[in-house]
Amino acid sequence: MKQSEIKELSVAELQEKLVSLKKSYTDLKMAHAISPLENPLQVRALRKTVARVATELTNRQ
Fold it and tell me: Which residues lie closer than 8 Å to 7 by C-beta, 6 or more apart?
């Protein structure tokens, strides 16, 4: 998810997105711990997306 897409979302949508992204990050991290992922860079990309959404949410408050 790009920064421009994140800026278009409302605060409520950002909060929902943050919860869903954190859950999918945790699931992906667990799956990677059990058996290696085909593309382990997915974990890094998802972690950075979570940070982008959290930062935008903090900036709006």
Answer: 56
